[in-house]
Design goal:
Elements lengths: L1 H8 L14 E6 L5 H15 L7 E5 L2 H24 L5 H9 L2 H13 L6 E3 H11 L1 H4 L6 E3 L3 H16 L4 H9 L4 H11 L7 E3 L8 H29 L6 H4 L1 H16 L16 H6 L11 H46 L1 E3 H12 L4 H11 L2 E4 L7 H10 L6 E5 L13 H10 L2 E5 L1 E2 L4 H11 L17 E2 L8 E3 L2 E2 L3 E5 L12 H18 L2 E3 L2 E2 L5 E5 L2 H13 L4 E4 L8 H14 L4 H8 L8 H9 L1 H21 L1 H11 L2 H6 L4 H19 L4 H14 L20 E5 H4 L4 E6 L19 E3 L5 E5 L2 H6 L1 H20 L2 E9 L9 H7 L7 H10 L3 H14 L3 E4 L32 E5 L16 H4 L23 H13 L7 H15 L6 H13 L18 E14 L1 H9 L21 E15 L2 E5 L15 H5 L1
Parallel strand pairs: 1-8, 1-9, 2-3, 2-7, 4-6, 5-22, 7-8, 10-11, 14-23, 14-24, 17-19, 17-20, 18-19, 20-23, 25-27
Antiparallel strand pairs: 12-13, 12-15, 15-16, 21-22, 26-27, 27-28
Amino acid sequence: MKQMQNSLQSIPQFDIIHTGLSGHTIIEASAGTGKTYTISRLFIRFLLEYEYKPSSILIVTFTDAATQELRERIHSLLRETIDAFTSGVSTDPFLVAFINRLDPKKSLEILQNALHSFDTIAIHTIHGFCQRILFEYTFESGMTFGATIITDQTDLLREVTNDFWRRNFYHESDLFISYAIENGLSPQKLRDLISTIGKNALNLRIIPEITEFNTTNEEAIFLDHYKQITDSWENNRGEIIQLLNSGNLRGIKYSAKIISEMIQSFDAMCKSPVKSTSLFPKFVNFTQTCITGNTKKNCQVPLHPFFSQCETFLQISENLQKLFERKSVAIKHRFCNLAIQELTGKKKIKGLLYFDDLLLNVYNALKSDNAPLLIESLRKSYKVALIDEFQDTDPIQYEIFSSIFAKPAPMFLIGDPKQSIYSFRGADIFTYLKAFSKVDHRYTLSKNYRSDPGFLSALNTVFHCNKNPFIYDQIMFTDAIAGKDENSEKLYVNGVLQPNLNFLFIDQNAPEFKGSDKTSAISKYIASKIYHLLTENTCINSKKLSPSDIAVLVRTNNEAAAIQNALREHTIPSLIDSGGSVFETLEAIELEMLLRALLEPNRTDRIKAVLSSSLFGYNCIEIDNLTHDQRTFETLIHRFILYHDLWHEHGFAFMFRSFLSREKIRQRILSFHSGERKLTNILHLAELLHIQEQYTSGMIGLHSWLVEKLTDSSTHVPDEEILRLESDRHAVQIVTIHKSKGLEYPVVFCPFLWHNSEISPARKNDPYLFHDPNNQNHPTMPIGPDEIETYRGLAEKEILAENMRLLYVALTRAKSACYTVWGKLNSSESSALSYLLHGQDITDPFVSSIKARISTLPDDAIINTLSSLSNLNPNIGLETSVNFEQGLFTEQNADPESLSFTQFQSEIPEQWRISSFTSLTKKAAAGEMPDYDSELYETVQLPIDETSEEKNIFTFPSGSVAGTFLHEILEKTDFEKYDKSSHNQFICERLHYYGFEEHWSGVIGDLLHTIFNTPLDQSNKLKLADINRQHCLKEVEFYFPLNEINPSKISTVLTNSSQTDLFSSEYCGDGLNFSPTHGFIKGFIDLVFFWKDKFYLLDWKSNNLGSSHDAYRESNLTE
């Protein structure tokens, strides 16, 4: 360990210009030190010095946003480097060094080729890279063709768990089933085990290692004694009660009330059809030991064989419970071993891949017999790897890269162990430390280009309070070196320079905080501080501070809501960016209530429920009044029936737009304080429901899907479900610490850095993960109660270590100033701030030791510590007086923005427009609608002969209305599910709508049946009736560019000369007249469908060419 510490303290700075690029290298990049800058320039060096192709330089990071940022940075740097080599000069020292070192002509050729082939650059997320391996190297990796990637495997895991439960519990005894239920063992608890395991399934050790356990004999003994004591009670009940009421027993244990409860409980036990090892609480009072110990002095001890029987039975019951406990452990152990295998098997059978399976499959391929072939293929494609955010890696990811890029292949691992904060996603800091010990070269980046030098000085001072701030010796804090000028980011209030790092001391016994919810009280205090900064003359150097310059970092969504509510009291605009799921919001619950009401619009209880939501905003009195106003209530019910019908006929999106408009939902929601947030969530949810509708079966299916999303306990949030920002206006940013990583803000408030590091009492008996220091930090999960208790201290030590890293991430987001709350707050004794500021010389067990120290620490000692820091470094401030300022913030408080506009100097040609086919023919003034035949051809509207006895398609009225009617019927009918009888009502409704008699429904029904079942190809296999709805696109809009066109040009084309102008004035009366046009043509394709690997285009024609089938033969259609 000392050798490791010495190597850490002597880590040299990484020199992007001169440091060699061979072997495996780890670069520890502290916050704000230019990690992306370094990666982009490593790319340039490998490009120019090693002459690697852009596609052979693999860059891997952990988010899509990060890949996009790296792509933009490298693209920009490529252009900058080309300019530098072209001109021979640059202001960038890195580029200057290479201009002088390399051949400019050859370098320019390499750079320009790289820019031209930039689309081939290999920048991926880890999952994207593994997906590429599996699909591009299918043979070498053993990947199954046609696998579908899924983002959620909850349903599959539920299926595996339920199967296991049936196999292992349905044959068990009633006794054990009762024990399992009473102790919370359930399918959900088993699924929680898999969530706890996370990404550690391959190398996890589960303790204790018990897989089989039999209790048959012990259960038989228990049941035999159970019968003995119940029989004895029934036979001797009166005698036993008399002894208990003899007056010889102390009242503290045997008062009249207690004895009555004992008798009732024993009677209930005897009558209960279910036997249980969990005896009622006062059962021990029936034992001879308890009776003897509570007999009054100088009184005779009540004696009875029944009391001795109870003594024996209690011991047997307790022993059996311990055995059942071990049996439960065996079942959990067996489940963990089998569940992953069965889950993998089910996904393989169904051709599915979960995100993490991408990594597992690549890992397995690299350990298989085909590994040498796969590695050889990959090494031909990728010459070097640059792994970003390496502190968030896990054992599988590290094994993948160390296998592909085995030494001496160059591989750079760039990250900062002090910022490893994603353990809940599987990030493993111990994998980073393992890699650190194995690499060839170790470097650091410590020059901070983000923050003001004064802030960095304050940060260094605070972290030197503890010689081992990050708990583990291998993670050291090195002083941040300022990369900015001394006066770069100074904060002034009314011309007075402010400290960079400010501690806001809170006395929880002060009137402002005593007896109140401390999260709410602290939020109000922080809002008051922000109000003060915004309404005073506060500047960063000379720039006026605005709300968008401020960020409040939180740990939980509840804290974010409390901060926003407090800011709202001062009318300070704010935005919450938490990265949570939109399905976790109140709006999701209210939308589910709405859909439930629309499914059965005659259920008044459901309507009343949704009326109480924010969608309608009725209070209890208004709902009660409504139920007594029958006419108004019936009108409301009819509106719900209308929305039900709209949903059924036109789909969710059409219905919901109508609902928002008719009920004025937008106006009502926006009238709330948090209206923008609520409306954003509602529209986001509506969009997701609209997308999902095409994959679910009907209205009930869509509602069921929403219910599943609301009850989903998965921690993975797909990108499309992440809460969206409600506005881009100037506002205070409220961000979770996890989401803030990689971001920076001029002024940061950290009001909630006092979360404790203990496992919560509610989860004290739940399994957890820890890394066993006595077994090379091997990931371990205790599932037995004794083991859970024994190793809790190690698990809490890891929680404290991550809380310290969260604290570091939070503080280092600030550019100019940071404000953090501290004081002796309840539940803060084992927090990261407690350990950092007051945990000097604390050793294992860390959490219990720091808790014990802080519990006895008076407020004066805490203030003295903060005062010492402030005296030691003038960049550290301390505020001990709490002042809740009142007032409302207005935009007038802020500097008005200097707005300007750009004048449009060009001209838009009058002829340039988006035209339609109809605008080039007739009725050019008509709106842009699907090109139904009635708009292209003037078809005679034949009179309806209601006296004609024969009803067929040839006697059906023709004309524009009929054409529009037929097009709509074909557009809205599901070919595959068409049935004449079930669709008759729909046909009748549309006939009535277009003014036709309903007796034509049979003719139209027969026509549809004929159309859908007529073969469309020579093999007679292609029929519309066989085309699934999901493989159809109807009324597909398209555009194509159009050169200038006018009547004269069309005349020349049609007559092959310029002698006759078909569009001369004598034709104007027929509507053949339009202005010269160019731009785009807009049109519609009636139907595009997919069948057997081909796409087909189909155009409906309903023009009347005659009254017999012969009139519609191919020869006549050609004419």
